[in-house]
Structures are given as C-alpha cells and as structure tokens.
Amino acid sequence: GVLLDEAAGLNQNQPVLPARLQPPQTVVSSWNRKAGEAHGRAQTETFRLLHGKNISRPQLRFQEKVDNSNTPFLPKLFIKPNAMKPLPEALTKSGRERKERCEDLDIPAALSDFVHQERTQQTEQDIFAHPYQYELEHFSPPDRLLQKPEPQMYRPIKETPCHFITTLDKLVELNEKLMNCKEFALDLEHHSYRSFLGFTCLMQISTRTEDFIIDTLELRSDMYILNETFTDPAIVKVLHGADSDVEWLQKDFGLYLVNMFDTHQAARLLNLGRHSLDHLLKLYCSLSADKQYQLADWRIRPLPEEMVRYARGDTHYLLYIYDKVREALWETGNEQPTQLRVVWQRSKQICLKKYIKPLFSDESYLELYRRQRVHLNTQQLAAFRLLFAWRDKVARQEDESTGYVLPNHMLLKIAEKLPKEPQGIIACCNPVPPLVRQQINELHLLIQQAREKPFLKLEVASAVRKRPPLSTPERLENPFFRPHDSSRIPMDDVQDNSALEPAPSDSERTVDIQDVQPQSTGLASATGSIFSECDEEEGNAKALTTAQQKAKRIMQSFENPFRMYLPSEQNPAYVSQSGKFDPSSKIYEISNQWKLMGQTQVQESKEEIKRKAAQQSAARDQAQKVYKEATENILSVRQQAMQEQASAKRERAVSEVGTELPEHEEKRPKTSQQPEEPEAPTQFTPFDYSQSNFNVFAGSSRWQQPPQFDPARQAYSGKKPAGANKFQQSGNRSMSYLARKADRGSRYHWPKR
Q1: pTM for this structure?
Q2: What is the C-alpha to C-alpha distance for residues 432 and 409, in angstroms, rounded to an integer?
Q3: Contact, 495 vs 46, CB < 8 A?
Q4: SS3 714
Q5: According to the UniProt record, where is the region Disordered (predicted)?
Q6: Do 435 and 421 touch, CB atoms closer than 8 A?
C-alpha cells in the first residue's frame, strides 16, 4: 500500500512535524466556500481556523483578576470625564474601599452593620445605574450632523499608515490625536471560547488619515483614559452593529459611548435588504470583505500580517460608509433630518445598554431545556439539572466557557442516555472535552444520583414557592410596591438553621429581597410600602391612612373572600403565607377553625348518609316482603286453577267411558275442598305371621336353567313357539331375518361389567 501511494504521488516522504509546527489547516465545507473570481483567484476560498494550541492564558497577566462570582456586575468606572452629573461616591476609589470610621469603633457590631446599611442604601440605585445615563438622556446631535453631508473619499489602505499600540505612552498620544478629530471609526475583536465571561483582545480605531490597532491584552488596565474621547458629545463614534461592542467596553475597560452612530441601524432604516458590513462595502465601496479570519483566535501574539490586514478592513472604510448612509437618509427623508434623528435616537438607546453578568439560579437550566424542544422524564430532567449546575461551577472555577467545558448537545445526550458506567459518558462525547475526562468520576456520581429518582411528576413540596433571584439589577431602582413586585417575600424562603430562636411576629415576616440574597447585591435596604404591616399596639396608637385602609381590605379579600362570615377577630393587614403554620398567629387559629368546621360538616354528612342508607334498606326489605306475598298468592291461584281443570277432565273421561272411578279415587278429596284435619294417630299393632300360608314361597330344590328362545333351533325341530302365528303371517323373509340376527348376536361376547 505504501508503494502504491508513492507511485500515485500521494506520499512524498515528508517528515512528520509536531502539532505546534504544522501549518494551520483549512476547513472545507459548503457553508464557508466563497468563489475566488472576485479576487482573481482560480481556487475557492474558505475560512481558516487559525488557532493557537499552546497559547498562555492572557487572564493570568491581568492586573485585575477576572471576577466570575455569581454576583451582579458593578461598573469599573471610577473617573467620569465630560460629566454633567458627578459620579456617585460609591463608584469612586475612595468609596469602593470600605474604611472603618472613628465613630464606628466604640459601638456594637450589630449597630455598626445597621449604620453601614443606612449609608449604603442611599447609593444603591446609583451603583447599578448607567454612569452616563443623565448625559445620554440630555444629548442631542449638533446641527452640523443633521445637514446634508459631503462624502469624503477614503484613502487607499496601502497608502494609509497603521500604528500598533502596545504601550501606555502611545495610548496617551492616540487619545490626544482623537481629541482633535470630529469623528472616528471603532471596532473590537473579542474572544469567548477559553474564558467564562470572555475578554476583548483587540481594538481598531480609524480616522480619516490613519489606522490604529490597540493591544488590549497588554493595556487592559489603562484603557479607561480613552473615556475622555469616547464620552465627548462633540466627537462622533461610528460603529457597525454596536450592541455587543457597547457591553464589551463596559465589562473589560469601563468605557462608555456618547454620540455614537450605528451604520447597522441606518441600513435597517434604509431597507437595504441586507444589513451586514460586507453588503455595505459592496454597495458603496465596490469591495468584498475578506472574512477568512472571522473564526481566528485573536489571542495570538504576535499577530500575523494577514490578521492585521483583516482587522484594519473593519474600520478603514467605515467613515466613508458613514457619509454615504447619511446622504441616503437625507434623500430618503425629502431633504429633512427626520431619518437622521431616528438613527441617532436608536444609537443612543444602544449606548444606554448595561452589561448584565450571567447569574446562576435553581431554574437557570429551564431556559436551555425549553430551547432544546425535547421531552425528558423525571430522571433525565434531574440529570440535566445536575449536569448544568456542574458545568456552570466548573466553568466559573476554571475560567472556561460552558461550550468548552461541556457543549449543549453533549449535555443533552448524556441526560437522555443516563449511562451506567463512566465509559458510557465518554462514549456520548465526541470529541471528549478535557474537563469531562478529568472529572469523569464526579459526573458518574451525578448520573447515579439522577437514576435514583422515581418516575414521578415533580411537585412543589413547600406551601410557598421560592421566587427566583432578580435577573437584572434594574428591579432595585424602583422601591415602590407593584402587583408583580417581588421585593417582599416570606421568611420561609430564607434558610434558617437556628431552631432555638423565638418565632418572629407577623410584622417581621416580610423582608427585603436584598436581605434574602446578599450574595447577589451585597447590600440591604428597607423598602417602604403602603402594604406594610402594623402591630396591634401601633394600630391603637396611630390610625391608618385611607390608602392603608384600602390596602388592608384588598389584602383581606385576597386571603379569604368568606371572611365576613367568620367571627369578628382582629386580623393583620398583610397576611403572610408562613403565618398559617405559626401557632402564635391569628391566621393559624382561623385556619384551624375552618378545618374544624370542615371536619364537622364532613361528620354530619357521613351521619346523614348512614341514616339515608338505613331508610333505603328498610324500604327495600318492605318491598321485597310485599313482592314475596304477591308471588305466593299468584302461585296458589294458578295451582288451584290447574287442579280444577284436572278434575274436570277426569269427570269428562268417566262420563264418556261409562265406568266409575276406582275406590281409592272416590275417597280422594276434591281439590276445591279444603284438606281435612289430620286424625289422631292410632296405636300400632304388629302383623301376625303365624296364620300366614308360606307354601306360595316354596319351590323345587333343584335349580333349572330357564329355557332360552332360539328361533333357528325351534324352526329346525319343528316346534312352534307361542308367537308362531305372527311369524307365519310375516312370511319366510321375517324368519330368515330373525335367524341371521340371532346368529350374528351369538358371535360377539360382550364383557361383563
């Protein structure tokens, strides 16, 4: 086989290189083929999966460690340039570091914590709010941007200088150059496969005359100085599809955008059919974007020349496209700035987006389960939930993406198959993820735990279902109570292991959501509400307002619509669900009264059923008795009629024959007459056999065999039997028939029984 391959030219005896020295391979498939005629090439062009296998993790060199904890995201901004509203004190460097004050040293720890909560609850909304929300809401594009533009042609990419920035001095110099520009284009290259939250690897900035590529892996902690130009409302930042870029800038660098123009929104408003940057390049620049490095690993350092050229192409032509789409919007709006204002308004809404950190909860797996469109039983769903939780935990600990730890399709396949052995788990994965092979024993234990679940429908065991944690911190901004507000939950949702503590009162049954989930927000605040409960002592001292009285009636109607029929008792305005299980509360007494009333009603209904059953059985017995008597009467009447008919028939027979009935029949009483009363029994006298004649029983002492009839012998001897006359009348044929029959019968000897 080797010689045949060499003869065919397949084997050139090339040395086998290690994986790190082999050239990158291309993935050839139908979805990424692209004809090369536009580039003057004869062969088809495909995407290149340029991936570095032995790249050191850039996260290890970050000065600020990556935070993968299950807590909400806090803005990284600590200096706010171009501010119309000052930065909250909690976001500044001094506010981030909690220092003990001198007046807090001499007070108890519990009181100190209360004072700290009172201080922080005022700045809680400011921490989770958008730092530049006030500036963006009061921003309006200048008049020069709402006029008909004059497109400025781009310079050829070969004649445009390109600067690769890797030091802080060059970054400061770039910031000074951008301050003198009226507009510049911006784009990012992000990596998310080998990181849980992902990180930005490259930033491209293009002006009318120069291109800049910033190594954000080296300057990650110094990128905040660009906020001076990024938040300047006089400088236009041009991006294409900025939805993800805005969040990445906030997450990695603490950068925010003010006065941004999104060419993707402009293309949508122009109804161009396709809104991609490739389509805009073909339409306005007559160029075809080179997307063969779209799937490349941007962590590679140093960057190859081809990848640098690809990165420059995303922003080099974007300013010219910005001019062309503004001109098209001006013409579409009948030379009015209406369409331009719409694009700026949509772009401003994108700038107001806030990065939301992925948080794990007990019901996080349901979102992925609904997207799969499969039906799992109890055991499979339990395995799916356990595997989802394991994947999230490992991904946060190892700082890897969930797709790298265990892809979704492999997770679903393992949950469906429920392998009994570790080899079965590995068989469900192709290729096997490294962390799955490393922790195969833990996964096997999880599958065994899921297999022990019974095939039953899951039911909520607790009386009150636990509410999921807040998905977004925006819910904390409004302290007012609403019909669907989850800021007040019962104490049952809080896991309290101390059983010796006294039962809290009804007024202490509701707590704020921040107290229940300190790991999510780290803060606690007291939220006021018109539905807040009042103690009995306070109710006597202070009258309720009109709103609180209405709220009290509403809550009472929600708890029990039949409260008006209960004995008059004082009930709290807000009825906690946990009060039903607290013997010290009024709700417990009321619920017990309802239970007792229900039990008495059930007992009375049972007695009524028994009484009705007894009446029905008595009526049934009476009916059966009447039916039996009627049946007996009918049978007696029928028997009497039959006897009369029989006697009449005998009388007719006697009259026709002319004879009299026998003596014993004359003595038989008539059927019509009533039976006579039985006579008294007479005395028994035995029969006297001494006077009897025993000769009738005597016979000869010699036994003689009785003669047997033999038709053939009698016919041969000439003797005529008693019935000879009959045989003579029937003829010789009858005699011969009887003879044959007798002869045939003598041949067979039947066995005796």
Answers
A1: 0.56
A2: 12
A3: no
A4: helix
A5: 467-511, 607-626, 638-753
A6: no
Torsion of CA 603, 605, 611, 616, to 10 degrees: -140
Query: Rounded distance, CA 186 to CA 200, Å?
Result: 13
How distant, in Å, are the alpha carbons of 90, 168, 397, 469, 517 from that of 121?
11, 38, 31, 19, 15
C-beta separation of 379 from 418 below 8 A = yes
Helix residue ranges, H only, 20-75: none
Angstrom distance (rounded) from CA 365 to CA 381 = 10
Cβ-based neighbours of 110, under 8 Å, separated by 6 or more: none
Amino acid sitting at position 227: N
Q: What is the pLDDT of residues 671-703, one digit of tens each?
A: 444 445 555 556 677 777 666 666 656 555 555
Q: Comparing C-alpha atoms, which of 450, 441, 297, 290 is closest to residue 365?
A: 450
> Is residue 402 within 8 Å of residue 388, measured between CB atoms?
no
Neighbours of 546 (CB within 10 A): 8
Task: With a cut of 70, say whether residue 87 has pLDDT above it.
Answer: yes
The HSE-up count of residue 387 (CA atoms within 13 Å, CB side) is 33
Alpha helices by DSSP H, 517-560: 518-521, 536-541, 546-559
Give the residue among 22, 55, 20 at the shortest CA–CA distance from 299: 55
Residue predicted with more confidence, 707 or 138: 138
The pLDDT assigned to 731 comes to: 52
Pairing relationship of beta strands 211-215 and 488-490 according to DSSP bridges: unpaired
How is residue 29 written in tokens? 């498939």
What's the CA gap between 98 and 110, in Å, rounded? 17
Contact 252, 199 (CB under 8 A): yes
Task: Read off the tokens for 748.
Answer: 């067979």
Return the sign of the alpha-carbon dihedral for residues 532, 533, 535, 541. Answer: positive
Characterize 336-367 residue by residue with b for buried, 16 or more Cβ atoms within 10 angstroms of its Cβ, and e for exposed: ebebbbebbebbbebbeebeeeebeeeebbee
Report how far residue 246's alpha carbon sits from residue 235's, in angstroms, rounded to the nearest whole number. 17
CA distance 741 to 736: 9
Residue 708's SS3 state is: coil
Whole-angstrom distance, CA of residue 150 vs CA of residue 327: 8
For the record, the structure tokens of 88 come out as 């909250």
Phi, psi of 215 (to 5 degrees): -85, 95
Do 410 and 428 contact (CB within 8 A), yes or no? yes
CB 444 within 8 A of CB 425: yes
Judge if the upstream peptide bond of residue 431 is cis by omega within 30 degrees of 0.
yes
**Residue 179: predicted pLDDT:** 96
C-alpha span between 679 and 385 (Å, rounded): 99
Across 76-85, 289-298, 604-613, 655-664, the highest mean pLDDT is recorded for 76-85
What pLDDT score does 672 carry?
Answer: 45
User: Could you say which DSSP state residue 239 is in?
Assistant: E
* pLDDT digit string, tens, across residues 584-594: 666 677 777 76
And the tokens for 298? 């941007």
H, E, C per residue of 177-219: HHHCCCEEEEEEEEECCCCCCCEEEEEEEECCCCEEEEECCCC
Integer-rounded Cα Rg, in Å, for the chain is 54
pLDDT at 386: 97
What is the rounded (10 degree) CA torsion for 586, 588, 589, 590? 90
